[in-house]
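User: Hey, my collaborator sent me this sequence without any context and asked if I could get a structure. I don't really work with proteins. Can you help?
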Amino acid sequence: MQIYLDYSATTPTRPEAIAAMQKVFTQQWGNPSSLHEWGQRAATVLETARFQVAGLINASIVESIIFTSGGTEADNLAIMGVARLYNVPQHIIISSVEHSAISESARLLEMWGWEVTRLAVDGKARVNPADLAAALRDNTVLVSVIYGQSEVGTVQAIAELAAIARQNGVLFHTDAVQAVGRLPIDVEAFSVDLLSLSSHKIYGPQGAGALYVRPGVELVPLFGGGGQEMGLRSGTQATAVIAGFGVAAELAAQEMSTETPRLIQLRDRLFAQLVDIPGLISTGDREHRLPHHLSFCWEYADGEKRSGKTIVRQMNLAGIGISAGAACHSGKLSPSPILLAMGYSEKAALGGIRITLGRETTAADVDWTAMVLKQVLQRL
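Assistant: No problem. I've predicted the 3D structure and written it out in structure-token form, which is a compact way to encode the shape of the chain:
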């Protein structure tokens, strides 16, 4: 019996998306920048996908969707695209629990003389809006706060945070890669200026993503070329994977009203079965949480032999795929920076695990996983 429970890492490409890709590969394979019929067939595919992705996040102007190679590129385009508008280093604000696509971009800006404020979070990984208001300066040009934290599942008060930035004339970006397709997102109501999303998190193919850019917001492209994607992302578009992305986005929008409550029910069912395991501590915010996401740290973690990665390996041997928070660099295990930012000890931060559910997850899968995880922890 094999059970995949790592849907926050990637999702299987759904058949409808694969069918759309196959049609492009065989019938609509032209260069979308070409003026002849072959090119225009491909261009139509791109614009259809742009409408589909725009509909998922309620973007009224479809040209505000800029296709990229994935969420990481979208994050980099947002951060670096704003930064490169300025000849003199300015100030940006991020949270202390950002995805590395944001935190590493910010670190690079610091090397170039920029000032970066990293907002502290509470023990549930939530940003206090008052802290954002207090951190704003006259030279703050961008705020970036992740919507749904990938490791611990916490959902931020994005609409409130974005409103604070807008009231002070500061651009606001959110990495919504984990939230898109699982939570309703309305970029018009949220007042965000920039929002990143990724195809393979919503059952589309790997290799496609998008950055929503509010009309009127200026960015400098990451690289030069033919000026595709409204001049912000040069290079011939990957039409086939973008087509798959579009189909996945449209279906996610249609299914969210039924799939999200189903995932919440399964998530809470699994939480209930794991709550009494000695030493297993739930991490993140239980109330403000991604609907498919569970995360824990094991307080008995003690180095490589009793770490979150050990738990992942043991679960894998039992045919169940989950993930860990701690990272391994050059053979040395490092504690999760997200758990450290939340106030956990280095020892506890070595024991982080994540279980994420998806379209194929059943109640039987959840029950079996709970039983196996209990057995694994008893043996360690």
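In plain terms: The first strand starts at residue 3 and ends at 4. You can pass these tokens on to your collaborator as they are.
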